[in-house]
Design a protein that fits this description.
The protein has about 350 residues and is α+β, with helices and mostly antiparallel strands. The protein is about 25% helix and about 35% strand. The chain contains seven helices and 23 strands. The protein has a seven-stranded mixed sheet, sandwiched between helices. The longest helix has about 35 residues. It is elongated, with a radius of gyration of 25 Å. The N and C termini lie far apart (about 65 Å).
Length: about 350
C-alpha cells in the first residue's frame, strides 16, 4: 500500500507555521522569493562610480557604460533535514500525556509530525542565518554538502564575492587613545565610497562594552537612550541588545547569539572584537525549484514545486516507520559587495 502523503496537502500546513527569524537573516537579507529555473541570473556590483563625460558642442551624446555591474549565474544548494517516526515513538504515553484517556498512536504520530516540522523549519532558518553570516564576515559562501555517509568535502560549493572592506583601527577600542567616533566615520566613508548606505553598527558584545566605556566616545554619544548619565540598553531577546544611536544617528546593536557549527563546536555569531557596519536588506536571497519523487515503484514520477520549503512524508512498510522531510534550495548574493565594512576593533 502506498503510504506517501500528498506533498501539496502538507505545503499549506508548513507555510502557516510561525517562524522565528534570526537577527542576521531578518535584518540583512531580502527575501526575493522563488525562481523557476535551476540557475538564477543576478546583478552583481563592485566599486565603480563613473562621471558623465564632456563632449564637443554639436557632437551629440557619448555612450556611458554601466561600469561596476555585471550579470552572473548562480546555482542553488539543497537543504533537506528529515526526522523519522518509528513505532517506539508512538506506542507508549509521551511526557506530559494523561495516564488515563491518553492519545492513540495515530494522534501521537500527528503531534510528533507537527513538532518535527517546526524543529526542522527552525534548523533551516539557522542554516540560512549561517549563510548570511558567512557572506557578511568573509564575503564568500563555502558550502560542504552531505551524503548519507556524512560530509562530502570533495564536492563543496564556493562563491567568492571578492569582499575587501576590512577595517582595523589604529588604536583598539579597549585601549587608551582610541578614537571610536573617528573610526565610525571612516567606516561610513568606506561604505559611501563603495556606493552603499549605513543603517546600523552590529557589534560583538565585547566591542560594544569597549565602545561605551570609552570616555572620549561618550562625549559624542546620543544620550536620548541614557538615564542619569547611565546607558539604558534595550534587550530585544535572543542575544540582541540595542544601545541607542551614535552622534550621526546610526543605530548601535550588539549580538551575543551562538550556533553549533558543522564541526560540532559552539561558536559566537559575532566573533570577539568584530563590528559589522552596513544597511538592512543588502543581501538578496532566492529559492530554487524543488523536484521530488512522488509515488512508489511503477507509479513513481518526478514533480517540481516552485516553493520556498517543500515538505514530504514517506512511509516505509518494510521498516514500519514514517520519514518527514523538508527540502529547500536557498541561495544568497550581495547586490553590492562594497556596501558594508567588517571592522576588527579589539
Amino acid at each position: 500500500m502506498d503510504m506517501n502523503f500528498d506533498t501539496r496537502a502538507l505545503l499549506a500546513a508548513v507555510e502557516s507555521l510561525p517562524r522565528e527569524y534570526p537577527f542576521l537573516l531578518d535584518t540583512f537579507v531580502k527575501d526575493n522569493g522563488c525562481v523557476e529555473d535551476d540557475k538564477a541570473l543576478y546583478d552583481y556590483r563592485k566599486k565603480g562610480k563613473i562621471m558623465a563625460p564632456f563632449i564637443v558642442d554639436g557632437a551629440g551624446g557619448v555612450p556611458m557604460s554601466r561600469d561596476g555591474f555585471s550579470v552572473r549565474e548562480i546555482g542553488f544548494p539543497t537543504i533537506a533535514p528529515e526526522r523519522v517516526i518509528n513505532i517506539n515513538d508512538i506506542a507508549t504515553r509521551s511526557f506530559g500525556e494523561k495516564i488515563l484517556g491518553g492519545s492513540t498512536p495515530a494522534q501521537r504520530a500527528k503531534a510528533q509530525q507537527a513538532a518535527d516540522l517546526k524543529e526542522m523549519l527552525a534548523a533551516i532558518d539557522r542554516r540560512k542565518e549561517w549563510m548570511a553570516r558567512q557572506i557578511l564576515l568573509y564575503g564568500k559562501l563555502e558550502i560542504f554538502r552531505y551524503t548519507n555517509n556524512g560530509r562530502d568535502k570533495e564536492t563543496s560549493l564556493v562563491a567568492d564575492f571578492g569582499f575587501t572592506n576590512n577595517f582595523t583601527p589604529t588604536t583598539p577600542w579597549n585601549e587608551n587613545g582610541a578614537v571610536i567616533s573617528d573610526d565610525m566615520r571612516r567606516m561610513k566613508d568606506i561604505i559611501y565610497e563603495g556606493g552603499g548606505d549605513l543603517d546600523l553598527f552590529l557589534c560583538a558584545p565585547d566591542a560594544a562594552e569597549a565602545m561605551v566605556h570609552n570616555g572620549e566616545y561618550m562625549k559624542e554619544f546620543d544620550y536620548k537612550n541614557a538615564d542619569m548619565g547611565k546607558i539604558k540598553t534595550a534587550y530585544r531577546g535572543s542575544g540582541l541588545r540595542y544601545w541607542g544611536q551614535n552622534s550621526e544617528g546610526v543605530d548601535l546593536y550588539s549580538y551575543s547569539g551562538t550556533f553549533v557549527d558543522d564541526d560540532g563546536t559552539v561558536k559566537p555569531i559575532m566573533p570577539s572584537g568584530t563590528v559589522i557596519a552596513g544597511a538592512r536588506q543588502m543581501i538578496n536571497m532566492f529559492y530554487g525549484p524543488v523536484t521530488l519523487v512522488k509515488g512508489r515503484d511503477e507509479n513513481a514520477v518526478w514533480e517540481t514545486y516552485i516553493k520556498k520549503e517543500v515538505p514530504q512524508r514517506l512511509g516505509n512498510p518494510e521498516s514500519n516507520q514514517i520519514t518527514n522531510r523538508i527540502t529547500t534550495r536557498p541561495t544568497m548574493v550581495p547586490f553590492n559587495v562594497d556596501a558594508w565594512v567588517v571592522a576588527h576593533v579589539l
